[in-house]
Amino acid sequence: MSAKLPPGLQLEKVDDRIMTLNVGPQHPGSGHMRIIIKVDGDYIVHTDPDPGYVHRGEEKMAEYRNYITNIPHLERPVIHDSCNILYPYCLGIEELLGLEVPERAKYLRVIAAELNRCVYIQYWLAIYGIFLGHSTMFMWPTGDRELLIDLLEKMTGARVTHAYFVPGGIRNDVPPNFEDVCLRQVNYFEKRIKEYADVFYDNPILISRTRDTGVLSREDAIKLGTTGSVLRASGVDFDIRKKEPYDVYDELDFQSPTLKEGDSYARSKIPWLDMFESCRIIRDALKKMPKSGSVRVKLKPKPKGGDTEIYRRVESGRGALGMYIVSKGKPQPYRLKISVPSFRNLIAMPHLLTGEKLGNMPAVYWSLNYWPVEADR
Amino acid sequence: MYVTARENKKNEGKVVLKMSSDENNTNVEKTEEAPPVPEFENPLANLILKKFPSATIAFANPDRTRVNVSKEEIIQTASFIRDELHFDHAESVSGVDYPDEKQIEVVYHLGSYDDPSLSKQIMILATRVPREDNPHPGNDTTKLSSLYEIFPSVAFHERECFEMLGVYFEGNPDNRRLLLPEDWADIPPLRKDFDIKGR
Amino acid sequence: MSVIAPKFRLGYLIKGVIDNIFWIILLVTLIGIPIVQIVLIYIDFPIIDGEIWNPFRVLDALTHPERALPLVVSFMQSDLFKVVAFPGFGFAALIAAATIFIERKMLAKLQLRVGPFYCGKVEGILQLMADGLKLISKEIIIPAKADKPIFWAAPVLFAATAGAFVALIPVAPGWVVADIDLGLLAVFAVIGFFPIITILSAWSSNSKFPFIGGIRALHQMVSFEIPLILSVLGIVMLTGTLNLAEIVQSQANFPWIIFMPVGAVVFFITILAELERIPFDLPEAESEIVAGWLTEFSGMMYGLVQLGTYLKLYAFAGLFVVLFLGGWNGPDIVPPFPAEIVTDGITILPGALTVEIPGLPLLAHEMINGTIWFMLKTIGVILVILLPRGVFPRIRIDMLLHIGWYKLIALSFVNIFIALALVYGGVIGPGGIL
User: Fold this and answer.
1) Which residues sit opposite A320 in a β-bridge?
2) What is the pLDDT of residue C358?
3) What are the distances in angstroms from CA C90 to CA A293, B32, C73, C306?
4) What residues of B are in contact with residue A238 (Cβ under 8 Å)?
5) Is B161 helix (H, G, I), strand (E, B) or coil?
6) What angle do CA C94, C98, C100 make, to 5 degrees?
7) Which of C196, C374, C384 minimizes the C-alpha distance to C277?
8) Looking at the complex, does the CB of residue A11 fall below 8 Å from at least one CB of chain B?
9) Is the distance from CB of A132 to CB of C393 less than 8 angstroms?
10) Does position A254 have pLDDT exceeding 90, yes or no?
């Protein structure tokens, strides 16, 4: 081949034994990313994740927009978990501007964040189901998710892209009968997700497929800096809501589920257990929430931060989500780095997939709680 | 440009923090025995200052400590932070471009899973590399030693930093493009002189 | 301005009608009449009641029902009817389509959704037809480096082989397309074609994912054919015949599943694997290998493979019914045809007008009864084959091969020993108690 290739590209060597598979970006089992897999027979001998197909330059965009106008586009990387990705940003801006959030807004934030976590996990679980060929597990979470989406629509006015959190509180108060409706729907939702055990988590075929596949030991999980469900499935009890409580999480009654096995099954079970805890948190927050009061601190039109830097993190549906905001006294952030859990968990993918069977690829890949759009930002 | 340590101490003076790193590191001396080292409420900062006098503590909040080191010293400092202070993973690696000072800052946010007493702590390790106006990523002086050997979790973050700001990490086994297209031929996009159209 | 026919003129309408009439007359004259002539010249006409039926007599008979019926009866005994309509292709496709519609609705209910709903007004009953029409209208795309003749031939071969399989299944006494003495052996021979076709199509498409899918299908089919054959041997021992119709007749008193449940279970699991149904749909596992060996098929090529799959589904379910569930045997549920109509004719006005219709009854009583029983059992088996889709995920290839080679083969040997014990114990078989 004499044709000159652009820098960074190289021709693949043809091998008699090793076959290279491009899993993605146009593959039903990849999401918006590509995994370059080399297989020897049925075994994966090399994995090279290649994200970036939906890179939108959120960090660059944020440098050009005001602190307030950054809100709607910052939730785009993961619209199913949009409250949680805005959470660290709002916390950071509040710390930057020295705002004190009203008590009722804190509780409503927690409720919205937990509802959003459930919405995200349901979506994730649906895809995990269809990745394993379990079509019922695709339909059930997608349907039950609508319950919570309706609730969030009542709260925020939008089904998925809420833009609900603003620095200094939340955008608007909830409608008058929200608490009753919320309690009822969350109770029903909890009853529904209990049934997933019958059809999915106790299914012998599912257990035999995911048990002992893609085992991530505790040491490796720590060394690779994984987070969220991947970390907790490997036996590290690390939940930002517990370890570094923000807003009113320290006053609420919940646990962070932890499993020791570190295999795909444990990783797929942790988010499901998380949803029960979310239901508990929501019920507790509804009980302890002040029944009335202001929900938002008025801001100046173009708030300016000081000459400082902030790093805040929250526990999103996938794990610790941090925002690093460098302020130089301007209305725009000088630099905004979003440290997303998907990107941090991505490093575990080559570690886990290499050496596995090709049939285990979807089970291991999606158990990483990986959201390609978020990783690309 | 950094908030100095003294000012910061004034701001955060009311916060009292009990750290247990002394129990974990029995070989580390008490900080009072080193008078020239400025004292912080946060014992981690004191430990680092004692070991590396040339490092600067930009601020030491109860749960965030920022250490600025020179780029030659970063490997030793990171090893010290991992081995003696028990930080075991990197949460993010961000690059910040300072075109006026002709420098690019690389900020490592380090955290700890293993040590429950440190779980609130984020050790912010920052260093600066020279910046060139006409970058040739990988082939110019914008180079830094990779922390891959010390914190393997930085691997993809450093790849991202390389393509976004052009900081080449020597020692990282994989310095290919990650998020950008393979045939990206413009300057690294997170530098300040890369302008978005219409802004 | 109205939306419909903004420029309506009566003249346009008349012109359109006349145009249509002209084209119809032209086409009939140029194509229809030559066809009729060819038919009249070259086709042999049936001999009924010692007379040759010439075309004029056929046309004459069509106007008189009592003369048309013998013609219909004669047509229904012809090979063409058997192949195209009743025990053959049409019947199989109809049952498969109806069952798949039921399966889609049931699966939808299981998954808290409505399923097909709009197409055909009533609960989406025409959805499958609409899907077929859509597939016909799609462009067929062939990969650039494909081995084109084999790639074209593979779907046709697949559907044809499935059709050959259907031809072997006896539906009612005497109603089978190919009534051969070694029927069961023929079934094994036909099944043996499927892996070859699969691997041919996978290889000829010159693409990676179809290749992996084809290899998987090959592994799966080959390793599950052995337990499939072994699990049926017990019945052959007990009945002493390979003819499927005779096997059905041997179950007049009790179906074989009573004596060999182990064989039935093994056979059922192997047909799930042969049909590539969930949980054994590895060759089409979409999250791993896109659509497996079907990846490069588009348009009606895919439609043909799907048609073949449905025919295969019907045929395997029918085989299960024939071998284990007693085939067409069942209690009488159809009232017998009133005999006085055959002998005396229909009395319209007592004493004045009696119409005698020769050729009745159109269908034998045991044939109707047997067909209904066969259909009921087959649809039940098809539903049991399809519904695991709602509760099981897909398994892995190594687990599948492990099941095939270790467990199912062992179980089918257990089944053979049961059969041997029954024969030597004198329970069944020549000189047995039953």
Assistant:
1) A315
2) 64
3) 72, 95, 18, 15
4) 113, 119
5) helix
6) 115
7) C384
8) no
9) yes
10) no
Task: Scan for tokens 């060999």, then name that residue.
Answer: C260
Return the residue of B nearest to A375 by Cα. B179
Q: For residues B118 and A222, is the Cβ–Cβ distance under 8 A?
A: no
Continuous H helices in A52-160: 58-62, 71-74, 82-97, 103-131, 135-156
> Is C407's Cβ below 8 Å from some Cβ in A?
no
Judge contact between C364 and C403, C-beta under 8 A: no
Q: pTM, whole model, 2 decimals?
A: 0.81
Helices (H) and strands (E) in chain C, counts: 19, 4
Chain B nearest-CA residue for A59: B190
Compute the residue count for chain C: 434
Residue for token pair 């004459």: C60
Name the fold adopted by A58-344.
Cytochrome-c3 Hydrogenase; chain B (1.10.645)
Classify the phi-psi angles of C6: left when phi > 0, otherwise alpha if psi is within -120 to 50, otherwise beta.
Answer: alpha
Cα–Cα dist A304/A327, whole Å:
8
In the predicted structure, residue B38 carries a pLDDT above the cut 60 = no
Question: φ, ψ for residue A300 (rounded to 5)?
Answer: -70, 160
What kind and span of H or E run contains B145?
Answer: strand B143-145
- Pairwise CA distance, residues C381 & C384, whole Å: 5
pLDDT digits (tens, 9 = 90+) for A309-341: 888 888 888 888 888 888 888 888 888 888 888
Q: Is the peptide bond before C361 cis (omega within 30 degrees of 0)?
A: yes
Alpha-carbon gap: A78 to the closest alpha carbon of chain C (Å): 22
Closest chain C residue to A203, measured at CA: C392
Q: CB–CB of A60 and B189 under 8 A?
A: yes
CA B114 from centre of chain: 20
| CA-based nearest distance A197→chain C, Å | 12
Question: Measured between alpha carbons, how far is C333 from C372 in angstroms, rounded to an integer?
Answer: 9
- Tokens of residue A47, six digits: 């994995």
In percent, the amount of chain A with pLDDT more than 70 equals 97
Sheet holding A320-326, edge to edge: A309-315, A320-326, A335-339
Q: Cα C176–C179–C185 angle (5° rounding)? A: 115
**Chain A residues whose beta carbon lies within 8 Å of the beta carbon of residue B97:** 335
Q: What is the DSSP letter of C29?
A: I
- Residue B107 phi/psi, 5-degree rounding, is -115, 120
Nearest Cα to A22, choosing from A10, A33, A11, A8? A33
Domains within chain B, CATH numbers bracketed: 5-141 (3.30.460)
CB count, 10 Å around CB of C67?
18
| Per-residue model confidence as pLDDT tens digits over A39-94 | 888 888 888 888 888 888 888 888 888 888 888 888 888 888 888 888 888 888 88
Strands ordered across the beta sheet of B56-60: B56-60, B64-69, B122-130, B103-111, B89-98
Give the up-direction half-sphere exposure of residue A67: CA atoms within 13 A in the CB hemisphere: 31
Strand partners, B128: B105
Select from C283, C275, C270 the least CA-distant residue to C215: C283
Neighbours of chain A (3+ CB pairs under 8 A): B, C
- Inter-chain touch A222–B114, beta carbons under 8 Å: yes
DSSP letters for C385-414: HHGGGGT-----HHHHHHIIIIIIHHHHHH
How many angstroms separate the CA atoms of C35 and B120, rounded? 89
